Amino acid sequence: MLAIIIVLLTALEYAFPGNPHAMSFYTRYMFRPYQSFRNLLFGYIPISVGDLMYCFGILLIIILLIRWVYFLIRIRTHKDQLFTSFIHTLITICVLYALFIFGWGANYYKPSLAHYWRINDTISKPDSQLAAFDGFLVDRLNTYAPHYHTLSFKIIDTSSRGYYKRFTDSKSKLSGLQAKPSLFNFLMQHLGIQGYYNPFTGEAQVNRFLPGFMLPFVVCHEMAHQSGVANEGDANLMAYVVSTATNDTAFNYSAYLNIWLYVQSRMRYKDSTMAKKYMLQLNGLTKAHIDTLRAIRKKYQGTMSNYSSMFYDEYLRLHSQKGGIHSYSDVIMAAWAWEQKRPLLKDSVIKIP
Q: Are 258 and 331 in contact (CB under 8 A)?
């Protein structure tokens, strides 16, 4: 049994990468119908089933470790039980990984959105364009800040679904999109997690303790994952493109602010003087929002968030994201390239591979 599963997983690792026909088959006949089925199954449950599943899984792991310790203490009489338990655990891990790949993980092998949208040809000399994008975003933030309004989580979720339905060709938009407040909100604060997608239940969990000005972008990011966008930089790009396509100032402002945070971070590294110049040009509301984010980071950043970042970095590298956790910031030049072509793409449907 174990050998068969390992052979199957190995075959999948070679079947999907660089094979557009296999990816097309997977997307059309596996991921999309499965995602819609999962949301129909769990969508009417107000709490996160995935969070409950993880709690149950942690409990089972604790029980398993206790059993292994007991078997090791009595190794002479329980070595067969220990070996059997170990094999069963390996089989379970392999089965779960297979479910992960079939249910969502194969989306990591899709081409980037920049490549799919054919905007990567405009991404050249990124450092020289960084200042221009920073200035563009500062101008947008100053324009939208006076009209910014905080929305409730329920309204953000409903609006996000509507915007995906209106502006994209997401095949999950009819019955596969929904964000839920996570049961682990307090823990997510300490781990520095804004939201996550559960590849087993298809649910999008969001930290509802996030400031209101962050939530529209984060919810759209998680819905990108539900639509089959796995790469974190691409999910950021999708959230940016969808949010800025609307006439909703709360979504516009949230998108420009979130992307500006990435741009400003890189700008400080490349040219701290220029970064400070743009920072001084920001309106008072945005500066207050930045102070809020700094206060949250100062309050909760610690050993737990450092370890969670290290673990997640390795997870992303394992799944074809060479930049690891820095993949989130890959959105910078792709978003700027999109802005360069936005006039030509006006009123066109945002396509999702």
A: no
Sign of CA dihedral 137, 138, 139, 143: positive
Antiparallel, parallel or unpaired: β 195-197 and 204-206: antiparallel
Select from 312, 344, 334 the least CA-distant residue to 195: 312
Per-residue pLDDT of the chain (353 residues; tens, 9 = 90+): 667 777 777 777 777 777 888 888 999 888 988 998 888 889 888 899 999 999 999 999 999 999 999 999 998 888 889 999 998 998 898 889 888 988 888 998 888 898 888 887 655 555 668 888 999 999 999 999 999 999 999 999 999 999 999 999 888 766 678 999 999 888 888 777 889 999 999 999 999 889 999 999 999 999 999 999 998 889 999 999 999 999 999 999 999 999 999 888 888 888 888 888 999 999 999 999 999 988 888 887 754 444 334 443 443 444 444 554 444 457 888 899 898 888 776 667 888 98
Q: What's the residue count for the chain?
A: 353
Q: Which helix or strand (DSSP H or E) is residue 85 part of? A: helix 75-103
The residues, ordered by sequence, that sit 6+ positions from 270 with a Cβ below 8 Å of its Cβ are 127, 130
pTM: 0.88
What DSSP letter does each residue of 258-275 carry, written as one string? HHHHHHHHHHHHH-HHHH
Q: Which residue has the tokens 């690792």?
A: 13
The residues, any chain, with a CB within 8 Å of residue 203's CB and separated by 6 or more, are: 38, 39, 42, 48, 49, 50, 178, 180, 197
Question: Phi, psi at residue 174, to the nearest 5°?
Answer: -85, -40
The C-alpha torsion from 25 through 31 and 37 to 39, rounded to 10°, is -150
Please answer whether residues 119 and 335 qualify as being in contact, where contact means their C-beta atoms are separated by less than 8 angstroms.
Answer: no
Q: Please write down the long-range contacts of 75-83, taking CB distance under 8 Å and 24 or more positions apart.
A: none
Question: At 2, which amino acid appears?
Answer: L
Contact present, 159 and 220 (Cβ < 8 Å): no
The C-alpha atoms of residue 350 and residue 10 are separated, in whole angstroms, by 34
Task: Return the structure tokens found at 76.
Answer: 């002479």
